[in-house]
Amino acid sequence: MVPVATAVPVFIGYTMRADYKGKSYLNQAVQINSMQDFQAFYSLMSGTPPTPAAESQQYTPIYHILPAQDTGDVTINGTALDLLPDPSTIYYLYSSIKLFYQNGGSTAYIISVGLIGPPPSPSKPLTFGRPLVNPNISYDALYAGLQVAAQESAITMIVIPDSMLLQEADNAKLMGDVLSQCGDATQCCVPFSRVGLFDVYGAESPDPKLWNQDGNIISNFRTDVGMSDFLKFGIAYFPFLKTSIVEDSAINYHNLGGGKELAAVLPNATVEPIKTILSQMQNPPTTNPPSPLQLENALLKASAAYSHMHDLVLEKINTLPASAAMAGVYTMVDSNKGVWYAPANVSLNAVTDTTLQLSDLSQGTLNVDPITGKSINAIRLKPGFGVMVWGARTLDGNSQDWCYINVRRTMIFIEQSLKLAMQSYVFYPNVASTWSLVQSMVTSFLTSLWNQGALAGSTAAASFKVAIGLGITMTADDILNGNMILSVQVAVSHPAEFITINISQKTQS
After folding, report:
1. Which of 128, 280, 324, 352 makes an SS bond possible with 100, Cβ 3.0 to 4.6 Å?
2. 385 occurs within a structural domain
């Protein structure tokens, strides 16, 4: 038996381009093995990685500087200001792919469902207090990409970072579609072969006090995901991540609305050299105009206030959903240890913080919801360890069989490996000699898994049972109808999620 691949995600979303050697790859599944492969098909600079100076060409989010509606993001000259994005310029896929490869990603599929156009003119900021919804991102387009993914048998994970930029109702509908494809045998070319990785809607800026109360993002997520029979195929992570994926040199004053908005808020905007720099940003001289990089560096050096805003916008651009990083973690853990190990207690690369600091107490409400049982996995900053994945449950948190990620994925791995191996015996004589071959092959495979720690039990015999044969798994009618029926029972190892330490004091005797 040849074990099947266990960590092959598909990423569905929007790209700068989707073509290679003159052929369009929109709404097609393209297999990639590196960031360079992704750039060859989907980045503006085809074939080689973009240099830091060209990074913003791939993705140019625009933030506007406006009077604060509350405490504000920054205070300049005693005036509180908000840095609000133009929602139509915010996309997550490109940076998510980079985050995937930073955290151990390997083979993946990309389905581009649309192209990212240039920033609109005029650009309009997000209304304060409204959810971040990109009007250019369409549920119908993402759903169409999901249907393309259904035709690819190698896929084992579904990740749609751009779904976080839909309206909440559309995001909820898309989550249901993903779960249906994962769990409904009629939805996919290889049934029960994949899981869906989800993020909590609104977790890019959760209210630090109200986030877990009724009517807020956690209860809304549990409502949105519904009571599907396929919750055991869904895995959710919270909150969003603060990353270092986009480098400091990749953004400039164009990402802050250009020189006009800066001139209205920066201290000493009418004093040299800031005055000249801002003027040249808005009206470049006709002879020997300075480059955007030169103007950016000059303003960073001349204005501490601008430098502070630059850093704040960079932090906002680097705030990403966690699902792509987790797809990379799954790949890394599967490769180094095995799919039967829980993808948890692992620190994330290129991640500096989370958008909400969780404690043991606050995380307890995420592990299992006593009413719906829908578990959400926490990602936490642990001093001395970094940002850690601190949860290993599926959405089916009340199930004794399917509450753990590694149990669900191990069973997918065993089932798909068996299906692949059994194809060799299609049209073989349905007789005792064939059954003996099949039983020997499967027993050998499961014994190797037991030796690696995938199966529970002190002996291999206590860990699994393989049955096949007339009067055992088949009747005479089954054989006449061409059915060979194999029954496999396995005891999958469960993680030690809670460690209890008992300490007692013994008096001297």
Report:
1. 324
2. no
